[in-house]
């Protein structure tokens, strides 16, 4: 049976939503129980509950400018009675609760300071005469300091109203929000010091194969070093998941079956293996799970065609093919989007349209995913950037993968494309091999920036 | 003196490159000394040195397919002598060093297995007869198993050549490379278990102001909770920097001066303060550093106009304004790009062109940075996505900041723009407030995807 990419994406999503025999504690955590973390520790985590603002922001009317607070009765209906001279009252720094204004006097007030009672407007310091604050020495030398207002003062000007950013009781952040600097800064501004977050989605990662040996060991003839565990572990960590690394397992189905059974009740959300699911004579995952609920199938995708999906002891199970590029493409196409849907993290990839720098052809019956180097458009008038393919379609080309910054999509039915034809590319964070990508426009530090205004 | 955004960007870059009185150990580390970390721990760090591949990838000629290895002398010059029947030799699983092929026989070989000597080509299992491998029982039952080749076999087909991804001795990754999953996976594939990384750029973060109180404490009249420390700490962590939080400091210049002097020789790369650098009567940073090399200036930017820059005891110093949005915009416009340039991390923001969903105006003499919500283009035919402004230009609107996913640039001279006019937006990771942004196209999980093919 050959599945389409879309069908398998739905199957993986369904698997991660699968609940009947899921560990109860995991489900609760995913649904919103969670733990409470200090703000900085919650970076990259997902909010477990709707959070209401316990205070208004701003918490009180405050001044937007350094200037003078003017009494409401010293302003005409439309500010027309201004232009007058007022006595200067005591300065109002930020951080104090000032006394009410007295008619006929204006109080020097600093940005962010609480507006005194009876204030009609704030007049910025540069609009009054003298256009700078009196010094402490001035106050000591002269008991009757005065200030001249401009001809017009708009009533209510330069007052930031309490609650104008968010009123107390309103939802500050919704459950499921990914907590980045702005969200955590908002919580701090609300006075919240710790935040309930969802439990991280926890993946047990297991690489199989007689031919695989640990990095750092002495190279053996016929063997290769295990790239998949590091590749998928770091990709999962980037995606906000927690990862438990299993030791490498060789091609012994009995031992693998025992190992998988042993981990299935440890409260993890997903077992993820690489290798051993294809059409060869020694496919250890396939052999170990031959009489189980796990399904072995082909997806019309290149690389990453062989896939396995099911449950082991009630725990969701995915098997990815063993070539590193196949494993990463499988992660990007199937697991990462499903994690976004069920766990709220990571954010989806940014999708751009790019013009091919060269012709390309792909098998019409498959969705081919190539590695590429995206260059932003060179000028504001050009609608899209361009993409150059990096390496061939081979699923073993991990150096080419490390030198790419996008995945290039050639969906089923594409066949041959000419230079200049448009394709969809996914920006893949952490896959940028060089620091010259996407330097902000209008930016003099840019080495190879897009140059748009 | 009013500086342009570009001038201040250059000044900040120059400051971070400043070296004469920089702590010697920090310089060494930044230039490539660094420490060695296990691969997974090096995620998000920057490679300190050029790394050569200690082995070729692939390390040996290996099979791209499950199939049969055929002797070079059993193939004609152009594969024309195939179609013959060959004896079946011993299977070659991945992970072993196989014996040389004998003419007249073909060896079952698995994907990734080492190619035996004398091999002319690999023929995929589905192209031979029988089109599946013999079982162990077949081997036991029949001593003379045979396989029929197809009519044509391309010489050299389906052999992945040693070094075709990268030859031993070639540069696998260049110094300065940001280490993500693909780069770390590549190192693992090369057998490398630990990697030398640059020391993290270390920032001492200090928020000032009588009006500021710690989140979690009881709200006091006239005071606000400190959002800046959390906002900038997490933004700096996202940017790959290390952060030392200083306790809040009130508006006492003497105490602040003493505190800054005390930290200046602690091996940090940058002192960053917020607040106290504007035109008010109580500007603690300005007062504390009045007779120092630190310069207080205005940048033609909104928000984030007031800026301070210099050194304290030889350590680079930046002062950002105290409003949270001003502080974050200052970080994005000045510090983050300079960190990319000097530390190799983070990657620059992705810049997109977007059509305004509404009219907007900005002060012509300033580069205004607004917060917005970017929506990818709805159909493949549309060249760009759209952007809706979130909140007004006010620098205190941190809830609006938390609900935005882009910074919208209205450069100097922009003035008024109409709905549909194009603007540059920066995608700001960690600022996405909702999970519906940028869901990959051609993706059935998409809630609000762009829909391009």
UniProtKB/TrEMBL annotation, chains A, B:
Catalysed reactions, as listed in the record: adenylyl-molybdopterin + molybdate = Mo-molybdopterin + AMP + H(+)
SMART domains with a match to the protein in the record: MoCF_biosynth (SM00852)
Domain of life: Bacteria
UniProt enzyme class: transferase
Pfam families for this protein: MoCF_biosynth, MoeA_C, MoeA_N
Key words of the record: Magnesium, Metal-binding, Molybdenum, Molybdenum cofactor biosynthesis, Transferase
Keyword Isomerase: no
Keyword Magnesium (UniProt): yes
The MoaB/Mog domain, residue ranges: 204-341
Alphabetical list of SUPFAM superfamilies matching this protein: MoeA C-terminal domain-like, MoeA N-terminal region -like, Molybdenum cofactor biosynthesis proteins
Cofactor(s) required, per the database record: Mg(2+)
EC number of the protein: 2.10.1.1
UniProt xrefs under InterPro entries: MoaB/Mog-like_dom_sf, MoaB/Mog_dom, MoeA-like, MoeA_C_domain_IV, MoeA_C_domain_IV_sf, MoeA_linker/N, MoeA_linker/N_sf
Signal sequence region: none
Pathways per UniProt: Cofactor biosynthesis; molybdopterin biosynthesis
Family according to the record: Belongs to the MoeA family.
Described function: Catalyzes the insertion of molybdate into adenylated molybdopterin with the concomitant release of AMP.
Name used for this protein in its record: Molybdopterin molybdenumtransferase
């Amino acid at each position: 049976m050959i599945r389409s990419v879309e069908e398998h994406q739905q199957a993986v999503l369904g698997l991660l939503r699968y609940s009947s025999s899921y560990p109860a504690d995991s489900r609760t955590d995913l649904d919103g129980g969670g733990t409470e973390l200090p703000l900085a520790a919650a970076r990259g985590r997902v909010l477990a509950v709707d959070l209401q603002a316990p205070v208004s922001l701003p918490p009180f009317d405050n001044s937007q400018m350094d200037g003078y607070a003017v009494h409401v009765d010293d302003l005409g209906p439309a500010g027309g009675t201004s232009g007058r001279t007022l006595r200067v009252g005591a300065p109002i720094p930020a951080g104090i609760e000032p006394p009410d204004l007295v008619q006929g006097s204006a109080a020097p007030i600093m940005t962010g300071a609480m507006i005194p009672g009876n204030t009609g407007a704030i007049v910025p310091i540069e609009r009054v005469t003298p256009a700078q604050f009196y010094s402490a020495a001035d106050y000591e030398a002269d008991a009757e300091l005065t200030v001249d207002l401009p001809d017009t003062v708009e009533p209510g000007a330069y007052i930031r109203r309490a609650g104008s950013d968010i009123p107390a009781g309103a939802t500050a952040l919704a459950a499921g929000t990914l907590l980045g600097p702005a969200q955590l800064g908002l919580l701090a501004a609300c006075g919240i010091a710790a935040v309930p977050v969802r439990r991280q989605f926890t993946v047990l990662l297991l690489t199989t194969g007689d031919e695989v040996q640990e990095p750092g060991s002495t190279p053996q003839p016929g063997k290769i070093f295990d790239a998949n565990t590091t590749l998928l572990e770091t990709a999962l960590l980037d995606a906000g998941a927690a990862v438990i690394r299993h030791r490498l397992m060789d091609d012994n189905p009995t031992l693998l079956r025992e190992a998988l059974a042993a981990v299935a009740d440890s409260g993890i959300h997903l077992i993820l293996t690489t290798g051993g699911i294809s059409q060869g004579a020694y496919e250890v995952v396939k052999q170990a799970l031959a009489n189980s609920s796990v399904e072995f199938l082909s997806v019309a995708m290149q690389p990453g065609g062989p896939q396995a999906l099911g449950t082991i002891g009630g725990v969701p199970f995915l098997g990815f093919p063993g070539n590193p590029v196949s494993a990463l493409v499988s992660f990007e196409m199937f697991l990462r989007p499903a994690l976004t849907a069920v766990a709220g993290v990571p954010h989806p990839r940014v999708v751009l349209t790019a013009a091919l720098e060269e012709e390309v052809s792909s098998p019409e019956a498959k969705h081919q995913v190539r590695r590429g180097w995206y260059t932003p458009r060179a000028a504001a008038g050009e609608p899209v950037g361009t993409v150059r393919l990096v390496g061939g379609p081979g699923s073993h080309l991990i150096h080419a993968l490390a030198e790419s910054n996008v995945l290039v999509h050639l969906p089923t039915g594409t066949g041959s494309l000419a230079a200049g034809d448009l394709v969809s590319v996914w920006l893949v964070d952490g896959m940028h091999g060089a620091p010259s990508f996407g330097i902000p426009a209008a930016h003099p530090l840019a080495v190879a920036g897009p140059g748009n205004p």
